[in-house]
Fold this protein.
Amino acid sequence: MLRKPIVLLLIACAGLLVPFLHGCARKAPQEDTKAPQDGTMAPQDGKIAVVVSTLNNPWFGVLGETAKARAEELGYKAVVFDSQNDTARETSHFENIIASRYKAILFNPTDADASIINVRRAKKAGIPVFCIDREINSSEDAVAQVLSDNYMGCVAIGEYFAKELGEKGQYIELLGILGANNTRSRSDGFHSVVDQYEDLKMVAQQTAGFDRQKAYDVTKTLLGDNPNVDAIFCGNDAMAMGAYQALRSAGKADRVKVFGFDGASDVLESIAQGNIKATGMQFPKTMARMAADFADEYIKGRRDFEQKIPVPVELVTIENIHRYGNYEKASE
Amino acid sequence: MSARLLKPLILWLSAGGIVAVALVIFPPFRIVCLSETRQAVKTFDPSEYAADFWQNKLTASFASASDAAEVLQAIRSDRRAAKERYGRVVGAGGPHHYYVRGSGRIIAIRDRYVDLALTDEGEIDLVLMIAKIVGNEVLNATAIVTPSQFARTSDYNGVSAAINQIVEGDLVPAFLAKANVGDKLHFVGCSKRVQDDDPVPVPLQVVPVKLEIE
C-alpha cells in the first residue's frame, strides 16, 4: 500500500534535485557582450547599487556616498548597501540586487576571494560590476576594477618612514584585515623598503582589523611589551588614530612616530598639528566617480574597459599637507 | 514475475533512472586526478616571471626608450609638455615615469647612486640608483605589461620586487666591478615616479636595466 506514494515521493525528490544541480553545469552561459540594441536607454529608468564593505569607517562612507551622488548626477536612482565586513551579508545584498534588476553594481568587496562568487552571479544575471578600491582575485568577472595603488603608496610611506627614523629604530606594524589584498599590498610595499635597512627592527606585527578601537587596544598591549618602540606603521588611518590615542594615554605620543594610510580628514588634521607623521592619500572620491562613470558608459554601450586601473596614492606629510583636504587634492 | 511485483519494480527503476540521468548531466561533484588539481592551482612565481621578462621582453624594448638628453631638455623647459610627450602613466593619471636611454660620463660612484653627466659640461643630469631599489618603476615605466594582466595586483608587485633584485643582485655588481669615475657609460633605465607637484626632477633618478661601459 505504501510503495506507490514512496515511489512518487522519490520521483518528486529527483525532480527537485534538478534545479539545484543546474549550478553544477560545466559551462556557464556566455555573457552577452553586445551593446543594447537601442543604445539609448534613458538613464533615469535604471537603478545603480553601491555595495560597500563597511560604513563603520568614514573613509568608506565617503566612497559610498560619492559613488551614489555621481550615479544620481548621471540620472540614476542609487542605493547604498552596507556589507558590514560580512561576506554573507554581502551575498544577501547581491541576491536582492539581482532580483530587483539593478542596471549596475559599484562594488567595494569585503573579501578578495569570497566576493568573486557574488560578482560572478551578477555577471551571469547580466548586471555589470565595477569594483572600487578593493580588488577581487579574478580578472574575468568584474567589468573593471578601479583600485588604489596601495603598494606604491606604501613604498613612498616606507621611504619617508626610514628617513624620519634616521634609518634606525624599533617599530610596530598594525595590519588590517588578514586575507584582504589591501592589507598585503600595503604591508608588502612598506616592507619592500624598510626591510632593506638592517637597523630598522620590527618588534611586533599584529592585526587590528582596520579598526580604530582594536588598534587602541592592541597598541596599548604592545607598548607594554615593547617600551622602547620608536614608530608605529598602521595599514590604515583609523588604526593610526587608535594607535596615536593609545600613545597619548601612555604619555609616549611625543616620542613615538605614527604613520597611517588612507588620507582620512582626522589624520590630515593630526598631521597638520604635527602629531601623526604621514599618510597615503587614496582619493576615494576620484575612484567612486570613475566607477560610476564607467557604469554609465557601460549601460550606454561601451565595452572596452581596462580590467585594472590603479589610482595613484600620494604621500602626505607636514611638508605638503597644504595640497590636500577632504579626501582629494585641495584645489579640486 | 507477477504483475503485482512488476509494476512497483518498473516505478523504482524509472525513479532511479531519472536520478541517475540528472546526476550525469548535472554532477554535484567531479572527481579529478590529484596531479591535475595541483597543476591548476600552481602558484604564481614572481621570480620566474621576472627572469623571463628580463631576458625576453625587456631587452627587446630598449629601442623604445626615449633619448635621455632629449627628455631632460624637455623637462627643464616645460615639464608638463615633457610629461605629455615622454611620460608613461599607469592607471588614472597623476604620477608618471620616463623610460630613457643614452650615454654619459660617470662623475661619481656613491653608496647608493652613480652620478652621470650627459654632456661635456660635467653637470649631473642623471642619477642611477644602484642600491635600495624599490617600487614598480621598471614595470610602470616600460609599460610592457599592465596590472590587468595579473589576477592579483600583488603578483604584479611581486614581479617588480623580483626585477629590482635582478638589478641589485646581477646588473649592478657586474657594473661596479668594472666601473670607474670618468668612464663613458651607455645605459637604459626607468625613472622614479614623478609627481606633477614635486620639484623639477633634475637630476633624474633612474633605475638602470642596462649598463655598459665603453
Notes: The mean pLDDT of chain B is 90. Helices of chain B lie at 3-25, 34-40, 46-61, 68-77, 79-86, 137-142, 153-176. Chain B touches chain A at residues 8, 11-12, 14-15, 18-19, 22-23, 25-29, 90-95, 132, 134-136, 146-154, 157-158, 160-161, 164, 193, 195, 197 (CB under 8 Å). The first strand of chain B starts at residue 66 and ends at 67.
